[in-house]
Design brief:
Number of helices: 10
Number of strands: 15
Distance between the termini: 114 Å
Order of helices and strands: HEEHHHHEEEHHHHEEHEEEEEEEE
Shape: elongated
């Protein structure tokens, strides 16, 4: 074989390799999973949260502690019907639990996200919200870095969240809430301000927490609820007020339930049960009287009993002769059929009852 022939074969091999690399890069960018940023100066291949660690370690640590990080791997999400996705055999669950960048479809009202095809175990990750075809979206202008940050005003609005969270009408609930009327949105409550320090990019500065606190965090959730009890004549009145004023409670996941339970005790300390013949759902058997707040599964045909933002609900119990004390309890359940003792978090009031006249 002549030297000219060898050179020609080598050139063809190099051209073929270049075509393969270009095709692979185009596929990765379309999937929303990774992309190598073009242009002069240092660049970085975007490939998930690990890419962001050198400059944003605090942010990544916050994200790791969030439910966004386990959106694809959480056992409840992957579990059997009716609460779970049956290991995502329900394809309609994929877009919100392993989303391609929201900017792919555009951040406008009523837009839905698309599912990505790689790194699904990362759940809702950095690129899900920040990924752009040629860099990353930033909330501030004038930033520099290997990831090529570009300010995008949409990133600081609730429209970033609605692409996933309006699947179960949470964004619509917010739009009808006192919070929306007052100019407060998702970011005000779920991305509290934190101080960036140390080696964090642009530190020291004020940033937004990426813990995305929600219903799994007891302190955060209870800060938006007021539980109270009082006696009016021979009635015990238990009330629950949704002070949160951002959306209905519970919201989003349809398997969540919030139970307000009143239990009355006689002089011997025995629980006074519900009226004979009263029908109750599984997990709701205990208590003298109770009220459930929930957005039930679509297929059930049952109406929503959620507690809207800014509103109050109450349970009234006629006190029988000999009643000496009572409890008013709130049970938050990740699945509706869980018994009270298995609730994810609870709140409890003890009440001494006045003697009957």
């Amino acid at each position: 074989m002549s030297a000219r022939t060898v050179a020609g074969v080598a050139l063809l091999a190099l051209l073929g390799a270049a075509v393969v690399l270009l095709a692979r890069g185009a596929h990765d960018g379309a999937a929303g999973g990774s992309a190598t940023l073009p242009g002069a100066g240092p660049t970085v291949a975007l490939g998930g949260p690990s890419t962001c660690l050198p400059c944003h370690a605090q942010v990544v640590d916050e994200w790791k502690a969030s439910m966004h990080a386990v959106a694809f791997t959480d056992p409840q999400v992957r579990g059997p019907e009716p609460a779970g996705s049956v290991n995502f055999s329900k394809q309609e669950c994929l877009p919100c639990h392993a989303p391609a960048p929201v900017f792919t479809a555009g951040i406008v009202r009523d837009t839905r996200v698309l599912a990505r095809v790689e790194r699904r175990a990362d759940g809702v990750d950095c690129l899900s919200c920040h990924g752009l075809p040629d860099g990353v979206a930033a909330s501030r202008a004038g930033l520099t870095g290997a990831c090529r940050p570009v300010q995008r005003a949409e990133l600081s609005t609730e429209l970033v969240c609605q692409a996933c969270h309006n699947q179960h009408q949470t964004h619509d609930e917010w739009r009808a809430s006192p919070a929306a009327a007052a100019g407060k949105d998702c970011l005000d409550c779920h991305m509290a301000k934190v101080e960036r320090t140390g080696a964090e990019a642009s530190a020291p500065r004020t940033g937004a927490s990426h813990r995305f606190l929600g219903g799994r965090d007891r302190e955060f959730a209870l800060s938006g609820l007021t539980l109270a009890g009082r006696v009016e004549g021979r009635e015990l009145v238990a009330t629950l007020h949704n002070d949160f004023a951002g959306h209905n409670l519970p919201t989003d996941s349809r398997n969540r339930a919030l139970d307000l339970v009143v239990t009355v005790f006689d002089a011997r300390g025995r629980e006074i049960g519900p009226p004979a013949g009263e029908a109750r759902e599984p997990g709701c058997e205990a208590g003298t009287a109770r009220l459930r707040f929930r957005n039930p599964y679509r297929a059930s045909g049952l109406p929503s009993t959620q507690l809207p933002a800014g509103q109050r609900a109450e349970v009234r119990v006629t006190l029988p002769p000999g009643a000496t004390r009572a409890t008013v309890e709130l049970f938050y359940k990740l699945e509706p059929w869980i018994e009270d003792r298995g609730a994810h978090w609870t709140q409890r009031l003890e009440m001494a009852l006045p003697a009957a006249p």
